[in-house]
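FORM 7B: Structural annotation worksheet

SECTION A. Query
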Amino acid sequence: MSTVTNSAAEESLSFLERVVRATPGDSRLDMCIQCGTCGGSCPSGTDMDYSPRQVFAMIRAGMEEAVLASNTPWYCVSCYFCTVRCPQEIHITDIMYTLKNMAIAANLYEDRTAPDFSQGFISNVENYGRSFELGLATRHYLRHQPLKLVGKAQMGLGMFTRGRLDLTPQKIENIGQLQAVLQRAREVEAAA
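SECTION B. Predicted structure
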């Protein structure tokens, strides 16, 4: 009797099955009736390569590379309007987060701007318990739009003089507790 490794078992699953498994809770993705309410509700829909409805059809068709290389998950602003309006109660925003994570892991997203910004934000929260806007913005503009950084200086100065921008990151109290929760979440995710 041979033992199948986790990664080998994962590879034998369809793209749809992997997306469903990687999405926390019951994504209800298999319930999509292709009505288009999600795309019609999305404030960023016109900028997306594919509407959420199209992405869900592509996931079912196994078009992994096209889905993960698209800008659709990255243009999701997490407003949950699509999720609230979905007649099938599909957790669309959660699926978009899953697709972002899968795109990063597969290194399929061509424009690194959004993934880098997302990873910078997550790093701040993991290290400080909150975002550090000055560091996040500076890092973002230096990596992706260095010439625009100078143009943002006036806005940053205005925010600083009004007490709305810290020059150094501020840790939340008991950061160790948050880090323990995040570590446990990573362990649970790895075991799944």
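SECTION C. Observations
The CA atoms of residues 83 and 92 lie 5 Å apart. The domain at 1-110 is CATH 1.10.1060.10 (Fumarate Reductase Iron-sulfur Protein; Chain B, domain 2).

SECTION D. Sign-off
Analyst initials: ____
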